[in-house]
Amino acid sequence: MKEVPLNRIRRRLPSAALPDPQERARAETAALLERCAVPAGARVAFTAGSRGIGGITAVLRGAVRAAADRGCRPFLFSAMGSHGGGTAEGQRDVLTSLGITEEAVGAPLSCSDRVVRLGETGDPLPGLPVYFAAEAAEADAVVAVNRIKPHTSFHGPHESGLLKMLSVGSGRARGAAMVHRLGWARMVEAIGAISSAVLERVPVVGGLGLVQDPYEGLAAVEALGAADMAEGEARLLDTARRLLPRLPVDDLDALVVREMGKAYSGCGMDTNVIGRLRLEGMAEPQSPRIRCLAVLDLAEGSHGNATGMGLADFTTERLARAVDRQSTYLNCLTSGGPQRAAQPMTFPDDAAVLKAMGDMLRPEREADVRLAVIDNTLALDEMWVSDPVLAEAAETEEVEVIERSPRLRFDDGGRLLP
Questions:
Q1: Which residues have CB under 8 Å from 236's CB, separation 6+?
Q2: Which residue intervals of the chain bear CATH 3.40.50.11440?
Q3: CB 62 within 8 A of CB 29
Q4: What is the mean pLDDT of residues 156-166?
Q5: For residues 414 and 8, is the Cβ–Cβ distance under 8 A?
Q6: What pLDDT is recorded for position 330?
Q7: Which of 131, 132, 29 is nearest to 77 (CA)?
Q8: Mean pLDDT calculated for residue range 350-370
Q9: Fold entry, domain 21-243
């Protein structure tokens, strides 16, 4: 497919970024602590997760500042399930790669595999053990901080967000393994039951719900009290669904993703964008429909965790060399999705990958191939598309062609040029 004419397009997506997320986080946290009458001197624990969220360091810094201004003693604790290999060192490495350090946020950062068992869940899903980060369970107040967005493996009234952070992330490797043993089909039910138990038995005063716009800016930073968390999260999830960036068309012959990784999605590539789940017992999405998918690189900040590479059909030896099998396998075994750790057909370089895609598609005319090349599944405001894709996209949304190329271009090492 080296001779497919391409167009670099810029899309006009809904932008709604806040002017000062740090100040909004400070004000919202201050109001939350005031409503809950958290006293001076209280130890206030804030969650620190593994997702690459635009502005997360500033948000945590603002939240910590609000607690310190009140005379409290704020600290952060790792709340990322089995990510980071489930170890203290691995968790700290993940957070450091996201810019979340003690110096950056202005508070101590606790990374550990220690959890306490809080008992078991009650109705309607009784008997599940409930685990929580030990140092946070001993705090005087806990505030969850997380992005709220559609999940890449299940859907319901609460998906990725504050309740999942409290029930899965804060349970660390042991808690995450227990939850995922139930399977993705019961995830919504499990999160509801476990988070209810956590809210009853841990001094959670509330959370900061974050929603991103299509340009990775924070469109919402809202404090939700513990009693209002489920309802508020469902409302913010509706906002996140409206703002979620997607491909401009539903049908592609080929999609090339330049880079995957944890900073972009929990499974490396957002399944809401690529239309593939590959999870036992879960139906595949009806759209988008992509005949073949290639991923070329693993983001450095993923620390070798290539969870989600199994969603692709083709990849490069460059990506394969970057994989840390221990981290990837632990993540996929914990989440119950070993298929997502499978290594796709692997070729020496990008040029060989594109040739293999062409060999699979065998088009009569390369100019008719419906091809898109994206940087990652989070940044979808600019991309390369073939002429048939451009024609369809221009009928449904405002697009600007900012560059044209008669063919795919590679360097002397076979690497796709930017």
A1: 148, 161, 209, 211, 220, 222
A2: 21-243
A3: yes
A4: 95
A5: no
A6: 86
A7: 132
A8: 95
A9: Rossmann fold (3.40.50)
